[in-house]
From TrEMBL:
It catalyses: ATP + protein L-histidine = ADP + protein N-phospho-L-histidine. Its EC number is 2.7.13.3. This is histidine kinase. GO terms for molecular function: ATP binding; phosphorelay sensor kinase activity. The chain crosses the membrane at residues 22-39, 46-66, 72-91, 112-134, 161-181, 193-213, 225-247, 268-286. It comes from Nitrospirillum amazonense. Keywords: ATP-binding, Kinase, Membrane, Nucleotide-binding, Phosphoprotein, Transferase, Transmembrane, Transmembrane helix, Two-component regulatory system. NCBIfam families: sensory_box. Residues 299-354 form the PAS domain. Residues 423-641 form the Histidine kinase domain. Pfam families: HATPase_c (PF02518), HisKA (PF00512), PAS (PF00989). The keyword rRNA-binding does not apply. InterPro entries: HATPase_C_sf (IPR036890), HATPase_dom (IPR003594), His_kinase_dom (IPR005467), HisK_dim/P_dom (IPR003661), HisK_dim/P_sf (IPR036097), PAS (IPR000014), PAS-like_dom_sf (IPR035965), PAS_fold (IPR013767).
Length: 656
């Protein structure tokens, strides 16, 4: 494009007006403005150099076209600088895309026209200033010889007006043409140019221009607008720019060929300026309308695609609640075509009752759904957007989950029943065995007529039966709720009761049970359950002593306030130790697992049940080696009253 700048100056000799050497429309200024817009201010010196090259080229090729080339070089060199400011402002205000500056809107065309008029006005004022300052300058009233040999008198104001009109007309036609070259290439395909409509538009432009010449009359100008409006209305701004370039070339050819008077040249300049403004504005309006229409169509296509690809059913409703559009999912759910659903009331499609919603399929089958309605304001009213989600799979999954949960609960109850049965079998073994033992002894004594001893044994048997009932009640509640029914229990009473219950077993094993209980300890426990824990631990110790070879058979129950830093203490530490061989290595890792035992007749549930009871009281049952050399089990229990306020309870130090 830079090479076209100096060549454009060769068109100047075509002018026939009061000022020889000036073209009717300044093509060169339009090229320069486009170059500065595209390149920016840093390459302005290249445009200046092109202006100098243009002057030199014109002086060599057409020396007669400008008798005073040195004087006329001043505005020619100033021209790139004058139009640089409008070019830079346009470059900042016009938006760009991948093909360059975007002029296809009314705002861009108005900015181009306004800034072009301002730049042309500056150039015209420069001419008037030169005519005022330099009396010897050609525009100061000298008689000049035009390119056709006629003598003409120069009027500075007339020349300035012609110069302004020529600059504005030239720039508004050539600058958009130069800036839109990438876009115009899409309109210049041979197949497109040979279409009947394009050929008709070209013929119309040629005929309308032929009407004007050779005699330039104002009333003959009107037909020129017809093909221009035709092109702009059909092709938008790109077509209007091409049509204006053709009109400007045709008018230039008519000026060069026909005998045009100076005042007629001014008429043609004004005509070209009117054509340029009309064509650019109309083309911009059409292009803007087409762009908005294309964007709307593109947005509508995208929206339709999104609606079709939505994971939920979508129903578009009009202001009256009738179906305007549905996506494919709604059609698939109902088994109907979208056309059959359009225009129908929403109530025919979606039913609601008692908080439940369902779609009615074509076969009458209800399909459970959930919906959400949003109202959207649009021009002339509101639109409803209803989203529908199929929840039949969710309902089936919920039903299946309910069945699975019921089965799991049933299995859990069965497992719990099995555990409870096993626990009852384990815990009731001792009191039932005691009952059998006491009643057998009672029968033997009665046979020997010793009634007092029989009564004592019958009392013990009754106590064991009552204890068996209490065990059943407490275990059943514990396995049902997982909670304990705590009550204040003096620690001394608890340990003393355990010692009494196990006195016969300890004596039969040839062992000794020692107890050490801190003063004033009152526990918050379920007495029956904790008694069972202590009984299980002491029995395990008796079994360990029976398996061992030691003659020192001792068991120790040690209960004292925990040293946890709390004041007063909140828990009591309990330890059950023995002098047996300790815990076997093969069972140490799974000691508290159910059914873990080293005895042939044992069930292996005692420690498992005991651990559950201790944890329900907020403690933890641990196993290790005690101070007596054998196994030791320790845990903690909550206290009710501080040690200094609790009533003192004394426990026996030994039980046979």
């Amino acid at each position: 494009m830079l090479a076209l700048y100096p060549l454009a100056g060769l068109l100047d000799p075509l002018l026939v007006s009061a000022v020889p050497g000036w073209a009717p429309w300044n093509v060169r200024a339009g090229i320069g403005l486009a170059l500065v817009m595209a390149w920016g201010p840093r390459r302005l010196p290249l445009v200046m150099a092109a202006a100098v090259a243009g002057l030199a080229l014109r002086a060599v090729l057409v020396p007669a076209s400008h008798p005073l080339a040195a004087s006329m070089a001043i505005p020619s060199l100033a021209e790139p600088l004058v139009f640089a400011l409008p070019a830079l402002l346009l470059a900042r205000r016009l938006r760009q895309d991948g093909e360059g500056f975007v002029l296809e809107d009314v705002d861009g065309v108005m900015r181009l026209a306004g800034l072009t008029m301002a730049g042309a006005l500056g150039q015209s004022l420069l001419l008037l200033a030169l005519a005022w300052v330099l009396p010897a300058w050609p525009l100061a009233g000298w008689t000049l010889t035009g390119w056709d040999g006629r003598a003409m008198t120069a009027d500075p104001l007339t020349v300035a007006l012609q110069h302004w009109v020529g600059d504005v007309a030239g720039v508004t036609v050539v600058a958009p043409l130069a800036l839109m070259v990438p876009r115009l290439t899409r309109h210049l395909h041979p197949a497109r140019l040979l279409r009947a409509q394009i050929l008709g538009q070209v013929a119309g432009i040629c005929l309308s221009v032929a009407v004007i010449f050779p005699r330039v009359v104002g009333s003959r100008f009107y037909p020129v607008f017809i093909p221009l409006v035709w092109v702009a209305a059909g092709s938008g701004l790109p077509g209007a720019v091409l049509a204006l370039a053709g009109l400007e070339a045709a008018l230039s050819l008519g000026i060069a060929v026909c005998d045009i008077q100076p005042y007629q040249a001014l008429k043609l300049q004004i005509l070209m300026l009117s054509l340029a403004m009309t064509g650019l504005l109309l083309g911009a309006v059409i292009s803007e309308r087409e762009r908005v229409r294309a964007a709307a169509a593109k947005g509508e296509a995208r929206l339709k695609t999104l609606i079709e690809l939505a994971p939920d059913g979508i129903v578009i409703l009009d202001a009256d609640g009738r179906v305007e559009e549905v996506n494919r999912l709604v059609a698939d759910l109902t088994g109907r075509t979208p056309d059959s659903l359009r225009g129908r009331p929403l109530a025919d499609l979606l039913h609601r009752e008692s908080g439940e919603e369902w779609l009615v399929a074509a076969d009458g089958r209800p399909l459970p759904v959930e919906s959400s309605l949003a109202m959207v304001e649009e021009t002339g009213g509101v639109m409803g957007v209803l989203t529908i989600r199929d929840i039949s799979a969710r309902k089936r999954a919920a039903a299946a989950l309910g069945q699975h949960r019921a089965a799991a609960e049933q299995a859990s109850r069965s497992h719990l029943t099995e555990e409870l049965a096993a626990a009852l079998a384990h815990e009731l073994n001792q009191p039932l065995s005691a009952i059998v033992s006491y009643t057998g002894a009672c029968r033997r004594i009665l046979e020997s007529e010793s009634q007092s001893k029989a009564l004592e044994l019958m009392g013990k048997a009754a106590a064991q039966a009552e204890r068996a009932g209490a065990i059943i009640r407490h275990l059943r509640e514990f396995y049902r709720t997982g909670q304990v029914d705590s009550a204040p229990v003096p620690a001394g009473d608890l340990v003393a009761g355990v010692a009494r219950l196990l006195a016969d077993e300890v004596a039969n094993a040839g062992a000794r049970l020692d107890v050490v209980v801190g003063d004033g300890l009152i526990l918050s426990i379920d007495r029956v359950q904790v008694e069972q824990v202590l009984i299980n631990l002491v029995r395990n110790a008796l079994d360990a002593l029976a398996d061992g070879a030691t003659t020192d058979r001792r068991i120790l129950i040690d209960m004292r306030a925990a040293e946890d830093g709390a004041a007063p203490p909140t828990r009591a530490d309990i330890r059950v130790a023995d002098t047996g061989p300790g815990i076997a290595e093969e069972v140490a890792g799974r000691l508290f697992a159910p059914f873990t035992t080293t005895r042939p007749t044992g069930m292996g549930l005692g420690l498992s049940i005991s651990r559950g009871i201790v944890e329900a009281h907020g403690g933890r049952l641990r196993a290790g080696t005690g101070t007596l050399g054998g196994a030791a089990f320790s845990f903690s229990l909550p206290l009710v009253l501080p040690a200094e306020e609790a009533p003192t309870q004394e426990a026996p130090n030994a039980a046979a």
